[in-house]
Amino acid sequence: MKTIALFGGSFDPPHIGHESIAKAALNFKDVEKVIVMPTYLNPFKSVSHNSYEKRFQWLNDIFKDNKNIEVSRFEINKKKKVPSIITVKHLLKRYKKIYLIIGADNLSTLKEWHRYKELKECVTFVVASRDNIPIPKSYLTLNVDKKISSTQIRRNKLQTRIKNIIDVLDKNKAESIEVFDLKNKDYIVDYAIIASSLGPRHTLALLEHLKKGIKPAEAFNNVDESGDWVVIDLGDILIHIMTPQYRVKYDMETFLNEIGNDTSSL
């Protein structure tokens, strides 16, 4: 094969929109194969909601019956953030031409990508339409008109809520953030989030940042707080913020692992 399309991303989680883009790319120009490339960790992010193995398996399940779509482990096997230019250079050892698929929402930050000038010399960018974002005529466009199912919307809404919580915590210097998937388990919530603060004052500061950052979308049903520990009850999500000493002392991770037996470390 000489020409491929590369479609990378977090796929956290993958959804019908991703599937539609990959399949539509097979009909684009001279593309002979699409390589779907899940990241170990997005270069522009410090956390992922679901483990790389889980995201890889989901993608495999979606594309297992399509011989012209390959899900690659190249980036996740690196166990670190991998800029697109590194992946492209690797693939150019096997393929002559690469169409690099990006979402229209990435256009505003494209020039910030690692070694962007070199990258644009190595690939032909293809921009997948999204949310009516205007795409300059200088780019090739992949029009995808596919509605996400209501089930997927509900699932994505929960993932979006978790992402918003993590983004606030991460932005305000919380450490060792972990998400525990407890759906269908014998526990009071669907998800638990644990984060370490830098100390008692920082614990309370993170609580205030969350109140400002995720309200009014989130209803704070109950908040228990002290200088060393804060527990926030959002109904289906519990947020635990602890000083490092209290986190070691109470070892909530072991308790939640025994319940859920399925942890995504972030």
The helix/strand series, from N terminus to C terminus, equals EHEHEHHEHEEHEEHEEEHHE
Radius of gyration over all CA atoms, rounded: 20 Å
What's the total helix number? 9
The count of strands amounts to 12
* Largest beta-sheet characterization: 6 strands, parallel
Average pLDDT for all residues: 88
CATH first level of the largest domain: Alpha Beta
Name the CATH homologous superfamily of the largest domain.
HUPs
Q: What is the CATH topology of the largest domain?
A: Rossmann fold
| Class by alpha and beta content | alpha/beta
What number of domains? 2
Task: Give the CA-CA distance, first to last residue.
Answer: 37 Å
Describe this structure in words.
The protein contains nine helices and twelve strands. By secondary structure, the chain is α/β, with parallel strands linked by helices. It has two domains: 3-142, HUPs (Rossmann fold); 150-265, Beta Polymerase, domain 2, CATH 3.30.460.10. Helix 4 (84-91) packs parallel to helix 5 and helix 6 runs antiparallel to helix 7.
Describe what is shown at a glance.
The chain is α/β, with parallel strands linked by helices and 266 residues long. It contains nine helices and twelve strands.
Name its key features.
266 residues; alpha/beta; Rossmann fold; Beta Polymerase, domain 2; 2 domains; 6-stranded parallel β-sheet; 12 strands; 36% helix
Secondary-structure map with pairings?
Elements: E1 3-9, H1 16-25, E2 33-38, H2 52-63, E3 69-71, H3 74-78, H4 84-91, E4 97-103, H5 116-122, E5 124-128, E6 140-142, H6 150-171, E7 175-181, E8 191-196, H7 200-214, E9 222-225, E10 229-233, E11 237-242, H8 244-250, H9 252-260, E12 263-265
Parallel strand pairs: 1-2, 1-4, 2-3, 4-5, 5-6, 8-11
Antiparallel strand pairs: 7-8, 7-12, 9-10, 10-11
Helix pairs in contact: 4-5, 6-7
